[in-house]
Amino acid sequence: MTATELKAGSNLEKVFASGAFAVTGECGPPKSADGNVIVEKAKLLKGFVDAVNITDNQTAVVRICSMASGYLAQQNGMEAIMQMTCRDRNRLAMQADILGAVALGIKNILCLTGDHMSFGNHPQAKGVHDIDSIQLIRMYKEMRDEKKFQCGEEMTVEPRLFIGCAENPFGDPFEFRSLRLRKKVEAGADFVQTQCIFNIPKFKKWMEMVRAEGLHQEIKIMAGITPIKGAGMARYMQKFVPGMDVPQEIVDRIAAKEKGAPQQEEGKALGVEMIKELAEIEGVAGVHIMAVEWEPAVPEIVEKAGLLPRPVLA
Amino acid sequence: MITAERKPFEEILKLVEGQQKVLVAGCDTCVAVCLTGGEKEAEILATELRIKAKEEGREVQIEHTAAIRQCEWEYLDAIAPKVNEYPVVLSMACGIGIQSMAEKFADKLVLPAVNTNMLGMPQEHAVWYERCGACGDCVLGDTGGICPVVRCSKSLMNGPCGGSHDGKCEVTTPEKEEIDCAWQLIHDKLYAQGREDLLLKYTPPKDWSKSSAGGPRKMVKEEAKPV
Question: Distances from the Cα of A292 to the Cαs of A54, A180, A297, B136, in angstroms?
Fold first, then answer.
């Protein structure tokens, strides 16, 4: 693919275009005005992932916004995937923010519904939900490809974006999950990152349905991985995190080790094994590693999974 | 119907603090059906307020009345003689009735005794569920008669989010009770009707200008206007 055929020309898009197996990470901005947290996380991941997701008030907790954080990450050599939820902005703000983000050099966007306000630190807030994530994907696609705002007005300079979305293969109704991905593909999504996978057999079943729809040829699919830091975290995700499917044998495997470093080592080893297994599945084009507040584990996992060096593309 | 819940008694006491003559006004339509603000409930509240005043040794004149509907001028006319005996009206109608009362009797201090909460229905005896958001642009024809605007916690228009699990929403009520996932219900209904292709249809952004987001709304029926 030549540069002129790229939609945004982001590093992530180029990695996919090169045929390489892509690797993305995740960076949660801090609950303070301390931008150095972003800078440090960006430096830590540089060279180990192709781009890093910058979360947008994740779990409905106020943090440095994803645009400013994404800018800081990119200033420090780490390409950003700016997350955008439908919870906190209406269509005016979503369009204004994406124009601003692109003007600041951001090229990847991830369109999300967003965790509900009731999970966060401002449960009394009014959620916006003016548009949903599928409408958001289409709005950005039309801004990019047709130079049109959602209202239909035209713009002179369009935001060149590589548009991402998320999908949860473990949500219900299960048989609708691949169809929902189809809706996102038709709306204009270029890549998808899945919810963290722990139940690989169920993920494989979902991928079968995705392939049956031919979707793996229309969208770059990145399998989501979360390295488990300890048995407590595994149990917490199993019981309390919406949309998570953590099989008991995963919890037991981590819990069989001693607390602390041994459990962490087992968590990393499990992550490496899972990446290798997921990479073998037809249609999986990359892996998205969400090391929640455990970014230092990422370089070792990527290395042991045999994913280094990361491609350097012009 | 419009549903409402009575405000906590302490809050009502605070609202009428220092008032000697208070008329508690019920409404015998929606709020009576939801057992909150009909004539019976107005009588109970008036009695509670009198007992409280007696306990505290305060001289008060507190009575109750009820309009068939507080939201229509003609029914307010019917209770006007009683209202005019009082400087303060504690209305147990929905927000519409309270405002009608305040507008009709402009020289009275009209206070709310209830919190209006939703357009809902009693799914089971004495339990009401929200059913309509009065969005001004009904989509029930495409969603199997199940409203995604108010029954989906995120008002999604294109199917369930990733938080739908075993038919339940990731969000619970403030009392931590489970909520049915509206999109699971829509999904099941459309499949049952053989209209599941609607699930794949892209629904464009909603025109919220037809809802309260567009500013206060007004409805005119030209054909019904007096000539």
Answer: 12, 26, 10, 42
Which residues of chain B lie closer than 8 angstroms to A176, CB-CB?
Answer: 159-160, 187, 199
ipTM score over 0.90, yes or no: yes
CA dihedral A175, A176, A180, A183 (to 10 degrees): 100
Extract the residue ranges of chain A whose pLDDT is less than 50. Answer: none
A113, A134, A180 ranked by CB distance to B154: nearest: A113
A135 touches chain B (CB under 8 A): yes
Among the partner-chain residues A115, A173, A182, the one whose CB lies closest to the CB of B184 is A173
B211 token code pair: 């809802």
Tokens 């952004």 belong to which residue? B205
Check A243 against B199: CB less than 8 A apart.
Answer: no
Q: Considering the entire predicted model, what is its pTM?
A: 0.95
pLDDT for the residue B30: 96
Beta carbons within 10 angstroms of residue B84's beta carbon: 12
pLDDT band with cut points at 50, 70 and 90 for residue B37:
very high
Q: How far apart are CA B104 and CA A224, in angstroms?
A: 62
DSSP string covering A223-260: EEE-----HHHHHHHHHHSTT----HHHHHHHHTSPTT
* Other CB atoms within 10 A of residue B174 CB: 7
